[in-house]
Amino acid sequence: MESYYQPGCLPSNRIKAIQELTEGQQLANKLREMLGQPEKVECDCKSVDSIAVQILGMFDNTLSILNSYSFNEYPDILTEATRYNTSSLDYQKSQNCGENAKFVRSEKNKRGCYKRRGNSSTSMKITSSLIDDGYVWRKYGQKAILNAKNQRNYFRCTHKDEKGCRATKQVQKTNDEIPKYKTTYNGYHTCKKSHEVVYGISDSLDCSDNSLILDFKTNTLIENKQVGLFYHSSKQISKENFSSLGLSQEQCSSSDNYTASDPFTQLPDVPLEPMSTISSGLDYEDMIFSGVFSSSSGTQGYEIDMFGSYDVGDFLFQL
DNA sequence: GGTATTTGACCTGT
DNA sequence: ACAGGTCAAATACC
């Protein structure tokens, strides 16, 4: 069994995982170096954040790779698959289904055959209107959800194919009288350059950001400045990115006061607020979430970020 | 003709 | 068995 792991004999995904971890290690060292020089961190907090987000992305990628199959099993599957003259994936499937398995399609024709993400990082945002998060999304499905009036919509990053970006999001209109949009992000964007936004929609890295982070672990409010190092930078919203929310270019032609047809539910149109008017204020009593909550102290509208959090040494990594 | 969306099928997890 | 998530053929749009 060990012989499979000799150099040159490693499964490609294992190599990929090792590469991700090695790169992450280098970046972590770089981060450590930068954090050892506080004056450097102060004037270049965005690159510190960028590195942190890259590291998180690497964790995520590695987890995804590791979750896709067991390395210990893989070589066996390969050899068995070869023996049966079929693809390893088909073989896996036939193994799962047993002797009475249905007809096993070729890998390309297998519909709905996928690995559900298990441990990828997620965040959730509830907004009063559809907003642009700066990414281009492609809708790949919609589904009626139990006890929900409105269908849930599924989007993946447009760059999934060309850059292997694994980020996805789900958008669902709530049942409330005044409908809100619950957006759940899964995974990290790996399609952007390091100095650009890497993570979904959380927008608060600006060092001048005075918003607050509520850490439910410690029940303390922390100035975003303090933890902002681990967020990506805020980003100007571009018109074309509204297409990710199912809006046509025509509908996005004006950034002011436009109304979007509702791509999610066929319910009456909901006015889309220009990004500039969507402040991220909210009432704290609305927040009954675990994890880390990020908010600014505005009064218009509401925008909720929910993150899981990882404690890694002295750092609080938000996911 | 290329790209995006729709939608039924099919898979996984509970 | 059921609910939810994803795939991919069909269709729509530019």
TrEMBL record:
Transmembrane portions of the chain: none
Chief localization: nucleus
Gene Ontology CC, one term: nucleus
Pfam families: WRKY (PF03106)
Domain WRKY: 126-189
Keywords associated with the record: DNA-binding, Nucleus, Transcription, Transcription regulation
DNA-binding recorded as keyword: yes
GO molecular function list: DNA-binding transcription factor activity; sequence-specific DNA binding
PROSITE patterns membership: WRKY
Keyword Transcription regulation: yes
InterPro entries associated with the record: WRKY_dom, WRKY_dom_sf, WRKY_plant
Location in or out of the cell: Nucleus
The name this protein goes by in its record: WRKY domain-containing protein
Originating organism: Artemisia annua (Sweet wormwood)
